[in-house]
Amino acid sequence: MTGKRWTAFKLVSLLLVVAALASAFSVYEVNEVRFWMLLGITAMTALAFLTLFSASQKNLHRFVTEMESQINITERDSLYRFPAPAVIVDGDGIVIWYNIAFTDQVYGGDAFGLHITKIIDIDLRKTIENKNTTVNYETGNFRVSAFTTEKTDANDEIIAELTLLYFDDISDYISLANKINDIRPAVILISVDNYDDILSGEKESEKANISIQIDKLMESYFDEHNALLKKLDNDRFIAVAEEHDLNGMLADKFRILEKVRGINVTEKNPVTISIGVAMDTDSIIESEQTAKQALEMAQGRGGDQAAVKKESGFEFFGGVATGIERNTKVKTRFVATAFMELINTCDKVIIMGHRFGDLDSIGAGAGLVGAIRRFRPGKEVSMAVDPDRNLAKPIIERLNENLDDEPEIFISPSEALSRITDDTLLIIVDTNNRDIIENTELCERTKHIAVIDHHRQTVNYIDNAVIFHHEPYASSASEMTAELIQYFTGIDKLPSYYADAMLAGIMLDTKDFVMRTGVRTFEAAAFLKKLGADMVAVKGLFANTLECVKHRSQLISSTEIYNRCGIALDDSGDSSARVSAAQAADEMLDIEGVDASFVIFCIPDGGINISARSRGAMNVQIIMEKLGGGGHQTMAAAQFTGITIHEAKAKLVGAIDEHIANIS
Q: What are 145-170's pLDDT values in tens digits?
């Protein structure tokens, strides 16, 4: 008995003794003999009570002590023989005790004195904080629960800390979950790229033959992988497969992509397909919606590839063939109409490109500024560009000098931020990647966003755009801009300097109309020529300083050829390295035996960049994506921080080897 009850018991006992004494003294004057008799009896009774009470307390304490000892022995013996594994570690994670089950089911050796992480792969700190975790060990899967006790001294300071780790075998549950996941249905959407354009000009019998070949290949491939295939239209299919069968398709890297390319149409226009796959979804409806997103991603990256959407992100397969140009301009007309309506509803327009804007980015943006000002006179329109960190200073200076009677064309990003309102329209050109735009804050604070871009779609694309005009088959953003503004009113009065800017962008990205050109590229150039574009003046915008030419020559002369790839390093950190590296990468393609070129160079702020080029024999976009970059099949780039130029080269070589292994 302890606490308040024990105090009350002692107080009552004392009161009883006092009452007995008082009763004895009350008869003193009446009968002295009786008083002494009562006093003696009271004293003897009190003494006996105290003696017996003291003895009973000692017996009780002895009984409790013996019981506690027996219980502790029972607890220890029960835990030691308990069928579930258990281990006790100290504050440093060192094993100080474990039971028989731990030896039988987890670790058969002597675990005393070992750190727990030497036995199982576990984050002890997080396990203690979260009270449990799940580990995958050689002998099975376990849910590990943690119970920590602390021993303190008289000052309540911790002098020891012990943690009991209890292992619950959940291997059966994991196995059941894996079986459920394996039979979970996944939706696969397939689209034939540019079906109508591929078959245009073919005889009806040949069209039917090609369609039958496509159907047979689809049926054969998906039957091989136990998938249900349904044809939705001439150029669209849907398939449903269990995930364990889908894993077989991932293992063979969607071999159907290569098989379809073997169908003969014309040498320059092979049949290609885009595939969107959804994995790790909770329902068939969610799977179908996710597959649509994946298919859009595959098509946005140029087609001829499979995009697999998982919980961890996208995984891509294929992308070998060069994208086929769309000859129809129906989409462009619809987009131009939508742009005009959007411009009419906004109070001002700000145009922005990517960081370190080049002639294509600045040229396309400047062309839009001039077109919108003619389409809607008085509308406040300007382009946000860093005046110091750009690669298009010749074109900016030329426009500012020759159009000084017009409102300011180019403003700084900070000035653009001060001008935006709730009704401002932000048009982003020559990129769809939100990580490399000129100013991310400007994008975040603007409610109305439109995108015009020709680069293959990235995973972190700008997904909140009102208009997303994306043509991965176009040569340049300037080509797309030139096509759009043909449908704007008042464009016949557009000053020729704007046309020069857009033509410079086309010439940059096509390498003077050599790379990635199609019918629409020359039609756009013809339209700009009609507006008064001067080819000689535009060519003058590409002039380089003598130092830049020397630097480029040094890079080319230092080229090392590895697996048909030219690799050059530049650790000078020169401010003109971006320009000379890109030009050197272009010229390195003229070296015999080089299918792709890579120039790794240091930039003034300490980072490492890679400029990659090819003529289509090797997809440099896929290689750069492995390094966190992106771009086009024939033109791409990547950036690094915190590593040396030689470490960047090692990463590049690894990405090249992986890419060659995947396509071989």
A: 888 877 666 676 766 678 888 888 88
